[in-house]
User: Fold this.
Amino acid sequence: MQTDDGRESLTTFAPNCAETENMSRFLSSLAILLILAFAGGNSGLWAQDHGHEVDGHDAEHAHTENSDHNHDRTDHEGHDAGDHDHADHGHTEEFVAGEFIIHHIADAHDIHLFGDVHIPLPVLLFIEGEGLQVFMSSAFEGHGHGDKHYACDHGIDYTLHAEDTLLENDVAVVSGGISAQREGQQLTVYDFSITKSVFGMLFILSVMLWMFISIAGSYKKNPGKAPKGMANALEPLILFIRDEIAKPSIGDKADKFMPFLLTVFFFIFFCNLLGLVPFLGGFNITGTIGVTVVLATLVFLLTNFNGNKHYWGHLFWPPGVPLPVKFILVPIEVFGIIMKPAVLMIRLTANISAGHIIILAFTSLIFIFGDGGTAIASGSGMGVFSTAFMIFMYFLELLVAFLQAFVFTLLAAIYFGDATHDPAHH
Assistant:
């Protein structure tokens, strides 16, 4: 069907009943992605076994904190504390570019806007023997990039670790992880917090639901007419995915996978764009391995659950191959089943993170050449160069944001096509 202005519309996709079915599939895909993405964003669940006593570092830290809080007990202690505070305020920490970059691209329990302005996020912890503990990340106290602590009224002491840490009983906590202890005893912690990446995913998925439900409603209200507004803006992208990705790669069964392909494409594209908005927290959603592993897992499951007899036959018993060669080829093919989605995951994570790292690296050059404010001329000169290059990188990142969404969707469609196509007849 053509619209009154002669353009092909999405109403050519299928009859009205099929449109309703496709939209239902799309919303189902979005709901599944919402649930699994939340789980993937928290895939780094940290569990600490019960210990018997705090280690030397924790004890020393606790002793230091108690000394700081009670530094006015004697004149001598007050004098020492005053000298210590004076040294802390007067000392300029050496700028380390690597720590600066990793800190800004890593996931976090708050959203850093600028300066000391942060938006706290909910911390959701399940502690064995204590139940669910809920509080805001602003409860943690600490300065700089070091560990932060929170002593709650229930007698539990929480630590937000700034770097990978090995606790008692050889239990590891990754950077950004939270450990808990009561009276020196390590508690087993499961972290289900709404981190920055999880918050960004929930925001993007909410926007997508609102957008596409509105678009579907506009098509139902104006059947056969040219789309307007948001529907008009997104229809070229939807038609592009259908006509240039899904149908050439999958064939007659393309409509079955269109809801998932649309969901994945717009989810990755919008997440990438959110990460490019300045002064909005520096989201790095698709650069987080927990997010991309969920997307890759969905591709893996859909590919293999929809694989036909021809697909599995070529995989485990390739025809026309000598028997000795099959013993070599079959393990490689089976390994390839896992490697294909793994490549999708690594490519997306690496490319998105690389763009953020390059921009932050040129930002770091300003501080390195400025030498803490002592070399103003060289710092200013490098600032002009870095700013110009960062502007160029931002425009390049806009292209990469679309390109990575396109590549992920295209490869997923190719995998679906390989699993569902019928044997060729010659």
